[in-house]
Each structure stands twice: as structure tokens, then as C-alpha cells.
Amino acid sequence: MNRPIYYAYPQAYAPNPHQLYYRNEDVERKEAPVMPKNVMYTTSVELKFIEHFTQHKGLMVSITTTVGKLVGLLEDVFIDHVVLEIQGKKHYIRVCEIVYFEKAESK
């Protein structure tokens, strides 16, 4: 068994010079855009907290958030945010970021 020893890869693994590994032309995608089905959006709802906000709608309130304190007119209350008007500018504050609120003191 005096075979010559072949130290390189066998021919089956040798690269084929005629095989293209890239394309020069633009390839168009044939897939159509698909909207995902059964998407469910969730939010935490604090009904009693929202109810208290609704009772103060139209009044001057002081809202303390996780980043600071805002004082203004409570314009509207939604299930996930409140609208606070401060000096003619509307601020939309997420309920989950509110620590507490109180009726603002009149000057």
C-alpha cells in the first residue's frame, strides 16, 4: 500500500472556479409585505387614579413625575396619559411616569 499521501483537501471540497459567489445585477425581492396577525397592545391601567384625574379636569394641578414637578391646567385625561397646559403649551404626560398629583395652590 504505497499510496501517495495527499495533504490538501479532497477534490470534493475544492472550490469550483465556475461557481459565482456574488451577483452583479440587482436582485428584486419577490416577497410581499405581510402585516403580523393577532397583535395585542397592552398598557397598565390604574382606574382609580384615572378617576381622580377626571375629577380635577379643568383645574390647576401640580403633577410630580419621575423627573420633576409640573404645574398647569389639566386639560384632558386619557387611559394612558394626561394633557397638561403650561403657559399655553400642551404637555402630554404618561400616567405610568406620574408619582402623584395635587390641586395647585392659587396665588
Describe the structure.
Pfam families: DUF2642 (PF10842). It comes from Paenibacillus hemerocallicola. The chain has 107 residues and is mainly beta. The chain has a domain at 47-103: SH3 type barrels. Helices cover 8% and strands 31% of the residues. It contains one helix and five strands; from the N terminus they run αβββββ. The chain has one helix at 47-55, and strands at residues 60-65, 69-77, 81-86, 89-94, 98-103. A five-stranded antiparallel β-sheet has the order 4-3-2-1-5. The chain starts with 46 loop residues before the first helix and ends with a strand. The mean pLDDT is 81.
CATH fold topology of the domain at 47-103: SH3 type barrels
Percent of sequence in beta strands: 25-35%
Determine the fraction of residues in helical runs and give it as a percent range: under 10%
CATH top-level class of the domain at 47-103: Mainly Beta
- The overall pLDDT average reads 81
**Please, how many helices?**
1
Tell me which CATH architecture of the domain at 47-103 applies here.
Roll
Category by helix and strand content = mainly beta
The geometry reads as: elongated
Rg to the nearest angstrom? Answer: 33 Å
Strands ordered across the widest β-sheet? 4-3-2-1-5
Low-confidence stretches: none
What kind of sheet is the major sheet? 5 strands, antiparallel
How far is the N terminus from the C terminus? Answer: 107 Å
The number of strands is 5
Order of helices and strands: HEEEEE
Secondary structure layout:
Elements: H1 47-55, E1 60-65, E2 69-77, E3 81-86, E4 89-94, E5 98-103
Antiparallel strand pairs: 1-2, 1-5, 2-3, 3-4
